[in-house]
């Protein structure tokens, strides 16, 4: 059986014939595979964006079609492929909004696809298969032993998950909510500190030191490649000084949140830790949007992003049982959203389940409101900036970090959030460049 490598966004992989299969999960990103079967050389390229926001300095050229495609072709030829024998396969580039509504400047997937098609034409490389556009994610897999390319809808390989004949009653779901371990008091203290204007390094260090496991995890993370400190961090006081009060609090709360998400890894998740990685991605995206717009505090945006899908930990075990039904409803009916399918099957959706958890945990009002109504922006207008930031963050992560969770792009609300926040396409590009899509897995693995 071939060894499988997952290609991160903004990276490519080129090889001679080998028993490796490489895969890329594509939402609005674009996947390009090029094979030369005569030379037995091939490659796969996971392209994040069409072009950089700045033409002066491009620190990571492989992220972009404009600067990365020449490097990809150069590597193929260096490995022995001949341009006249190359065959190309193209996938991804999902739409982030309805064609009739979206400003074409925001169609990053479409713009990337056009640049790739133009590049292939200019270099006389034959395009033999293309599955681009639409509102769904794709998985591109390249078998470098048999030189075959497969393009399939994300999540279709989970259709054989076990089936369950008994649909849970609302009483069963309420029982699960009551049995979920209460959020620790120190976590609630951290939330209050995050949203307080008066917090000191000494107070933070004192609270964290009360939990030895938490202290060890924070010190371990601070010494990891994710933060790459100049000097080794030996104690919590040094960690607080290195990261700052606010950042250490957000890191601490991320550790607590991961505890709840890690047990919900069978239903919504399409990979190990997928649900938490998605939540972490939305938190980081929300933080960057808040920083760009200056509409709300970045700490509030991050915390709300981390908790917005907490209700999924309640329904996860049953989603696993009914996965084929979820998948068919999501992908066969364009008008069905994820919450529509949840209500159809369980009579409750993850936002309602999350609201029950928020009440049980006595979370602050703004966080509880976001958890309950983040899919209903058109009906509930309290805390509008927070709600639109979480909505946009959710859309960006779902579109550009596909393959983490069972989802469907909620494209109708994209432009509403962009316009409410006063963002243009170049600002969105700046935000996307700052979201650490490829570090979500390594960060979650360290927790």
TrEMBL record:
What is this enzyme's EC?
3.5.1.44
Care to name a GO molecular-function term for this sequence?
protein-glutamine glutaminase activity
Q: What EC class is this?
A: hydrolase
Keyword list, A-Z = Chemotaxis, Hydrolase
Q: Which SUPFAM superfamilies match?
A: CNF1/YfiH-like putative cysteine hydrolases (SSF64438), HD-domain/PDEase-like (SSF109604)
Q: What InterPro entries has UniProt attached to this entry? A: CheD-like_sf, Chemorcpt_Glu_NH3ase_CheD, Cytotoxic_necrot_fac-like_cat, HD/PDEase_dom, HD_domain, HDIG_dom, HDOD, RNase_Y/CdgJ
Q: Which PROSITE patterns match?
A: HD (PS51831), HDOD (PS51833)
Its BP terms in the Gene Ontology are:
chemotaxis
Per its record, the protein catalyses: L-glutaminyl-[protein] + H2O = L-glutamyl-[protein] + NH4(+)
Determine if Hydrolase is one of this entry's keywords.
yes
Q: Which residues form the HDOD domain?
A: 180-377
Pfam assignment, any one = HDOD
Domain named HD: residues:
275-383
Cited PANTHER family: PTHR33525, RIBONUCLEASE Y
Name the HAMAP family for this protein.
CheD
> Which family would the database say this protein is a member of?
Belongs to the CheD family.
Q: What does this protein do?
A: Probably deamidates glutamine residues to glutamate on methyl-accepting chemotaxis receptors (MCPs), playing an important role in chemotaxis.
**How is this protein named in the record?**
Probable chemoreceptor glutamine deamidase CheD
Q: What is the lineage of its organism?
A: Bacteria, Pseudomonadati, Calditrichota, Calditrichia, Calditrichales
């Amino acid at each position: 059986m071939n060894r499988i490598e997952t290609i991160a966004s903004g990276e490519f992989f080129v090889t001679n014939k080998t028993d490796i299969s490489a895969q890329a999960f594509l939402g609005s990103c674009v996947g390009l595979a090029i094979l030369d079967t005569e030379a037995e050389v091939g490659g796969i390229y996971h392209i994040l964006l069409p072009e950089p926001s700045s033409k002066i300095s491009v620190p990571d050229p492989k992220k972009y079609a404009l600067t990365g495609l020449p490097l990809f072709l150069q590597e193929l030829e260096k490995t022995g492929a001949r341009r006249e024998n190359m065959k190309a396969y193209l996938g991804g580039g999902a739409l982030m909004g309805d064609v009739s509504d979206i400003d074409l400047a925001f169609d990053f997937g479409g713009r990337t696809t056009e640049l790739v098609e133009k590049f292939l034409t200019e270099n006389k490389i034959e395009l033999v298969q293309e599955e681009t556009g639409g509102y769904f994610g794709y998985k591109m897999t390249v078998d470098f032993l048999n030189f075959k390319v497969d393009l399939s809808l994300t999540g279709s390989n989970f259709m054989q998950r076990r089936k369950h004949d008994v649909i849970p009653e609302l009483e069963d779901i309420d029982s699960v909510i009551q049995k979920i371990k209460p959020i620790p008091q120190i976590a609630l203290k951290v939330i209050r500190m995050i949203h307080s204007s008066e917090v000191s390094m000494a107070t933070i260090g004192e609270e964290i030191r009360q939990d030895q496991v938490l202290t060890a995890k924070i010190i371990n993370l601070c010494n990891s490649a994710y933060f790459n400190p100049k000097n080794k961090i030996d104690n919590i006081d040094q960690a607080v000084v290195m990261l700052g009060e606010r950042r250490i609090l957000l890191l601490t709360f991320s550790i607590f949140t991961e505890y709840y998400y890690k047990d919900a890894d069978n239903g919504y998740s399409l990979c190990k830790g997928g649900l938490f990685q998605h939540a972490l991605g939305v938190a980081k995206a929300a933080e960057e949007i808040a920083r760009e717009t200056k509409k709300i505090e970045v700490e509030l945006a991050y915390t709300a992003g981390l908790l917005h899908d907490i209700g999924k930990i309640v329904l996860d075990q049953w989603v696993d049982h009914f996965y084929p039904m979820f998948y068919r409803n999501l992908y066969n009916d364009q008008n069905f959203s994820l919450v529509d399918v949840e209500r159809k099957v369980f009579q409750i959706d993850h936002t309602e389940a999350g609201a029950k958890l928020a009440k049980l945990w006595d979370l602050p009002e703004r966080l509880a409101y976001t958890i309950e109504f983040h899919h209903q922006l058109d009906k509930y207008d309290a805390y509008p900036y927070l709600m639109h930031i979480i909505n946009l963050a959710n859309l960006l992560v779902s579109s550009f970090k596909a393959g983490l969770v069972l989802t469907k792009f909620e494209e109708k609300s994209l432009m509403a959030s962009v316009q409410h926040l006063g963002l243009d396409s170049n600002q969105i590009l700046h935000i996307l460049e700052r979201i650490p899509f490829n570090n979500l897995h390594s960060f979650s693995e360290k927790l």
